[in-house]
Amino acid sequence: LPGGGPDVRTKDILSCWHATHFCLLVCGFVSTRSTHYLHGAFIWKTTRGAAAGGVRLWQYENFYSYIKDGIRLAVGMGRKNALAGIWWGGGKGVISRPLDSDPDKRWTRRDFRDILFKEYGCLMSSIRGCYVTAEDLGVRTPDCDAVFARTRFTTCVKDDYGGSGNPGVLTGWGLICGMEAALNYLKMGGLDGKSIAVMGCGNVATSMLPKLLEKNPQRVIIADTNQDAIAAARKRFPDTRVEFRCVPKGDVSILHENVDIVSPCAVGGLLSKDTIPGIRARIVCGSANNTLKDDINDGRLLRKLGIRFVVDFVVNRMGIVNCANEQYGKLNHDPAIFKHFDNTYPEGIYQVAQRVLTLADAKGISEVDAANELAEVASNVPHPIWGANRNRDIVKELVAAEWHRQPSLPVFPAKHVNK
User: Fold this and answer.
1) Where are the alpha helices (DSSP H) in 104-151?
2) How far apart are CA 271 and CA 274, in angstroms?
3) I need a labelling partner for 163 at 20 to 30 A (CA). Which of 139, 263, 293, 324 fits?
4) What is the pTM of this model?
């Protein structure tokens, strides 16, 4: 990646986290000799347990952007896990694919992806379980299966391997809980007769739609830049209440529709000082991680404009909840998972979303500030069996053993990588 080396200073990397009060921050990365992709594992606050969060495959313009995104996402996962009441710390994996030096788009080929994610599995094993990975942006269940071929420290593998599979459906249902919590809190009734604008026509949005339509909304508008995804969804959902739009890259007009709820379900960081003033919806509730470009200032701008924000790491938890307890076996309609949809469960999405809104109003602060305050308390609760320090001890041993001086990860045959 460009921008590495001495141009990236420690104080630059940490400057954006002056308010997070982190007690453990570990960034481990390695560039492999087989694919030459950069693999990273980012760990934040493991008081509640091992760091957990998905690995994403994405592009970054420079090394600083790569590091910043990894830290930002790990912190978000730590807060998400804490508010969900599950015994994991904050973690995120990031694999950077080239901006333009891979014109053949090798990352789209199954044979190349198998090698790429096996490499990532080797990284997981090398850090001895202080971070457990899962599925995230740009990554699917077969990729997690490839990770699983080289490590036990992954989740979201397919059912045949004893995993929990694709969590998209449950994540979509979680958004509906968050929407209903906000509507109820604002005394706006339920989803019946409401209008919703969804940004993104991916796995979460299309998984949410059937259950959303059961709630009898007046209309649902879904926009995406992927023409194939829009065409497939239009064919799958011929309901006249749903409008699908294919928009050009960079088009954020869906955020400014005259609707009751805006639901950003694409990449994060699209709500900013530039896009927020145009929002006409009363509620923002979406699955995109790190929905706000600037958590603090953008959250306060939303509040100033009277727009209520159902914080992303409160409502998009179901991906990690779905795989959080894979090691304890599987139950159909697992109560450990489905209790998060129960409006009466204290740690469920509905109750936590309302608790955040209540605290924000009581203190006159943004929903982001309120959620961070609640998450800060929850993230400092030690694991009930292992206590607060087990994962710190693993990291200390890795540092003492000079993990960073280890030989490169295994080299896979070049004929399988480069052909």
Assistant:
1) 110-126, 141-148
2) 8
3) 263
4) 0.87
